[in-house]
Amino acid sequence: MYNMTNIIKNEIKILLEKVGVKDSVEFSTPPKPEMGDLAFPCFEIAKQEGKSPVEVAKEVVENLKLEIRNLKLIENIKAFGPYVNFFLNTSEIARLVFENNISAENVGKDKKVLIEYPSQNTHKEFHIGHLRNVCIGNTIVKLYRESGFDITPMNYVNDFGRHVVKSLWGIENGSKFGVQRSEIDNAENKQKMLGEIYAKANTYIEENKEDITPELDELQSKLESRDPEVTKLFEETKGWSTEGFKDLMDELKTEHDSIIYESEVKGRGQEIVDELLSKKIAEEGERGAIIVDLSKDNLDIALLRKSTGGGVYMTSDLALAERKFGQYSVEESINITGTEQDHYFKQLFRVLNLNGFTHKMTHVGYGLVNLPSGKMSSRAGNVILYEDLRDEVFSHLYKETKARHEDSSSASSYAKASDDKKASADKWSEKKIEETTQVLTMASLKFTMQKHESNKIITFDMNEAVSFDGYSAPYILYVVARINSLLRDGKYVENDILYDVLCEQEEKQLLMLVADYGGVVKNALESYNPSTITRYCFDLAKSFNDFYNKHSVLNASSPDLVQARLKLCALVSGTLKKSLDLLTIDTVEEM
Question: Which residues contact 380 (CB under 8 A, 6 or more apart)?
Answer without folding.
Answer: 199, 202, 203
